[in-house]
Structure formats: C-alpha cells, structure tokens
Write a structure and sequence with these properties.
single chain; alpha+beta; three-stranded antiparallel sheet
C-alpha cells in the first residue's frame, strides 16, 4: 500500500520504453524477426497490434486475420449495430425463447457465471438503465418512478438462459443487453488465438486501453506498460509487467456525461441503478482477457474495500486499486499482482 504524487507525463497504458511505438504499416527488423504494426477502428475504438514475425508479409497477414476476427465478433456482440446477433436478441418478443449461436450463448453463460461471483455488481442486462440515464444520447436524470422501472427491467432476471437448448428468453419489453463490460475482452481473446495460430509468439495488442501481451518483446522478457493516474490520464501512477496476460482498467474520469452540471460516469451500478462516482480506478491482470475486462468493471462498482475482499484470495487474477485522496492517490493490490507490479517505478 502506498500514496504518492506522480511526477512524469505519460500516456495511459502505453509502452514504457521497451520498444518504440511504430507508425501504422511500419515494419522494422526485430531481434528474432520483423516487427510489424497495424491499427484499425473496431468496436467503436482503436485496436493497435504489433507482432514479431518471420517476415513483414507474414506479420501483416496475421494482424489482418486478427482484425477480421474482431470485426466478425463485432457483428455478434455489438448493441450499437442493428444487424448484430445481440441486437436481434434485444428485439425479440418478451416471453419467446430464442435460439442463439453456440458462440454467443456460450459467452453469455460464461459472463453469467463470472458475474454471479460479484453479488450483482456486474450485469450485461442494464440497457433499460442506460436509456433512463440517457448515457447514449447526452445524458439526463430520471425521476424516481422511471428509475424504479428501469431497475425492474435490468439485472439477472431480465433474460433467462436455457442451457439445455441454448435458448434465451427476454422477459419484458424495454430490457436489453450490452456487451460493454466484456466485449473488448472477448474480442482480444479471439484475436490472441488467431495470432498464436498464425505462429506469432511475441506481440502486444492495445484495444482502447485494454492490453493483451503475447509472450514478451524478447525471450525471457516481459512488456512494461504504464497505469495512468485515475484523474490525470496523461500521467503515470504505476508500471506493470505483462507476458501472456491481459490488463484492463476501469474508471469514471474519462468517459462521462454531464447532467445538470454534474458529471456522471458511464459505468452503472446495477444494484442501485445509478452511475458510479469517480472514486479512482481499478486495473485487473489476468490470463484471460474476458476475465480482465469483466472483473475490472465489476470491481470498480464494488469499490476498493469490497473489491479487495473479492481479490485478496485470488491467485489467478491480479488487482490494483488506485483511490483518489485529494491530490494524492492511495494504492492497494492483492498478492496475485505482485509478480507483475514494478513497485515505486513510474
């Protein structure tokens, strides 16, 4: 545990001096091959991928395959696109069991199982609350009755999963799911599998701030990345090492809407139906990018005290809480993070 003032300017979760960040379409010699980088706009944000491959062509083709896989998953998981499978589920008549693809159904079951461990702090079926607060159209404050109705349409009971038949039933009009708390993680997991299948043993993917490290920049090394100050996003607070791990950070300072002069973050507490205050940030390091993504959202909702109760016994998930205390931050972490944390370095 420590408290301090960050000293250096840095970009949140960018490479910390291990390798240079290359411009798109660049290819330069690397220690054991060619370093290739590409970026694309997918799922509403930027996905930047750099890999070391035997040749520039092989590296570029592997990255393009990963981009195509993420684009395909966007067509499954996006709640912004009307033609996605998730959006079609969100439009199904209430009470009618709807068969889903094995991929989407499997993801929803996985998310439900992980979410159950957070005591209601993580739920994908919060669409009615998103509508009530106007988080996708500039923001507004719902009245008590509207908020109560939105809460009734949200949460674990809004959709019923029939695992025997891979069907989902929407229970009421106005309920809908978003993949905002797990979609990037699912996409990173899929992209990593594609790259590894193409023979990539060293690479780093940055998907709008969530990272996936494949191996390290060289044999026996790890990528070193910065964790941003929760309020001043261009300043570093910590550095962590990553090798065959994903790191996801959640906070309320960067994405928000302003309602009646007050800022409200984009992360909702499904239990209260209200946006989370900007208390700081939480970073999760896990082997599975979906787990890192989902857990970062859930632990931000739980907050440092209850979140640490969840994190303390974990051996497979590293967690770092950065809690704002005036102009300083208070940092706490679990033992599982210690192998990856560079304590006292910024």
């Amino acid at each position: 545990m420590t408290a301090f003032r960050p000293l250096l300017a840095w970009v949140a979760l960018m490479l910390a001096g291990v390798v240079a960040v290359l411009p798109p379409s660049a290819a330069v010699p690397a220690a054991s091959g060619v370093l290739v980088e590409r970026e694309a706009y997918l799922m509403g944000t930027r996905l930047r991928v750099q890999v070391t491959a035997a040749g520039a062509g092989e590296g570029a083709e592997a990255i393009e395959r990963a981009f195509r896989e993420v684009g395909r998953l966007e067509g499954v998981l996006s709640s912004w696109r009307e033609d996605s499978e998730l959006s079609r589920l969100n439009r199904t008549p209430p009470g009618v069991p709807t068969p889903l693809s094995g991929e989407l159904f499997g993801l929803l079951v996985e998310v439900e199982e992980w979410g159950a461990g957070f005591g209601g702090a993580f739920e994908p079926a919060v669409g009615a609350l998103i509508d009530a607060w106007g988080l996708r159209d500039g923001g507004r404050r719902p009245g008590p009755a509207e908020l109560a109705r939105a809460r009734a349409l949200s949460g674990a009971d809004a959709f019923v999963l029939d695992e025997g038949r891979s069907r989902v039933t929407r229970r009421a009009e106005g309920s809908w799911m978003t993949a905002g708390g797990f979609g990037k993680g699912a996409a990173l997991r899929a992209a990593g599998r594609v790259l590894r299948a193409a023979g990539i043993e060293s690479g780093l993917l940055d998907f709008g701030g969530q990272l996936l490290a494949i191996g390290g920049p060289a044999e026996g090394q790890a990528w070193v990345v910065a964790i941003a100050h929760p309020a001043r996003r261009t300043e570093p607070a910590f550095r962590i090492r990553l090798a065959d791990r994903s790191a996801a950070t959640s906070g309320a300072a960067e994405r928000f809407v302003e309602i009646e002069g007050e800022r409200h973050g984009h992360i909702l507490d499904p239990r209260s139906g209200r946006p989370m205050p900007a208390w700081g940030s939480v970073t999760v390091v896990a082997e599975d990018p979906l787990v890192a993504d989902l857990a970062a959202t859930a632990l931000f909702v739980l907050g440092p005290e209850r979140g640490m109760e969840w994190a303390a016994p974990r051996v497979e998930v590293g967690v770092l809480f950065l809690e704002q205390e005036g102009e300083e931050i208070r940092a706490t972490w679990n033992r599982a993070l210690e192998p990856w944390l560079l304590v006292g370095e910024v």
